[in-house]
Predict the structure.
Amino acid sequence: MNEHKPINISSASTEEIGRRMANFGATPFTLDGWRYASVESFYVGLKFLDDAERRRIAKLPARDAYAYGKGSTLTETEYQDRRFALGGSEHHALIARAIRAKLAEHPKLARDFAATHPRPIIHDTGRPERPGTFMPAAALCRILTALRDELVANGGVLCNEPA
């Protein structure tokens, strides 16, 4: 394996590990007592405030959730009685928790992801990044790199969630 060849974490990746690690990857997980079909379903749910709507989105396949999320006009959200800006550091930390939960529930995926180290991580969907996106590629790649570094340092497993 070429350790300099980037690993594309995207549904458009040519590698299975890139597609499975993408937010669109069909890797269900539980976070804070709620079950999500994918990280994308979690991400899109944050664009709506109504719990019933969030529960419906949580079950949607990633592509359906993504399409539904285009209808949101929120720039701030609430989660566990905290209000914060979409695209801000608190939002990004919450997405990192979701990806961490996904990896914890899928240990083989976590080991396979760790095995991509030290390849650079990119997020190339094949389309230009949308202006004003709440999760820019650079932020997603920082989150994924930090999680992978933790996996590598701990033999392919994640430590307890940081406080």
